Amino acid sequence: MPHNSAIRTDATRRAQVCKFVDTAHSYGELRRTVRGGELSRRPSNSAWRAARATKSVFRFADVLGPDFNEAGLPKTAALFEAVDHDAERVAKGGKHFFSRARPFIASRDVQPIVPKRPGDDYHSYPSGHATFGYLCAILLAQMIPEKRDALFARGREFGMNRVVDGVHYPSDVEAGRIDGTLVAAALMANPDFQRDFADAKAQVRAALKLD
């Protein structure tokens, strides 16, 4: 269950501070530039594309190593599953409020390189993946401050991949960063979450042999 029912679904309205100009043309130029370099060094198989579109805290294993995995960290998996519900609720509130079309709906020149899910044709702002990615980076950095810089870099990549993939505008990702920060602050002020967080932190640090 989500930890903090007091997290307001209209929190993303604060993301109106983003002042990006995301026309289909300017977005397309950015996407072609970034994606060209990205695809030159990434596999193009369908399994990779599906994994790239998956929201999971364990995608941070490329920073934390193979011992950071769902099978060995059940408390951590449960914590971040609940965190995902909280993040999703906030992001959906913003999506319904702004009702911004996805880039590939705004322009036929934009072709997504990851599988589209039901509902992906609509509601681009804010990015739910970016919200979750930044939120995970913030929480993991609290657990493992030794990896703080790398975790935040991975969180940024988690969000910007959605631009490269053709399913979000840069400002969607920036709004997700704001939302992720708001949700993290609300969760860390919740006593129930603090207890579960402490248990997961101990589990992660033991698994990674950091204590």
UniProtKB/TrEMBL annotation:
It comes from Paraburkholderia tuberum. InterPro entries: Acid_Pase_classA_bac, PAP2/HPO, PAP2/HPO_sf. Pfam families: PAP2. Signal peptide: none annotated. Residues 73-188 form the Phosphatidic acid phosphatase type 2/haloperoxidase domain. It comes from the Bacteria. GO terms for cellular component: outer membrane-bounded periplasmic space. GO terms for molecular function: acid phosphatase activity. This is Acid phosphatase (Class A). SMART domains: acidPPc.
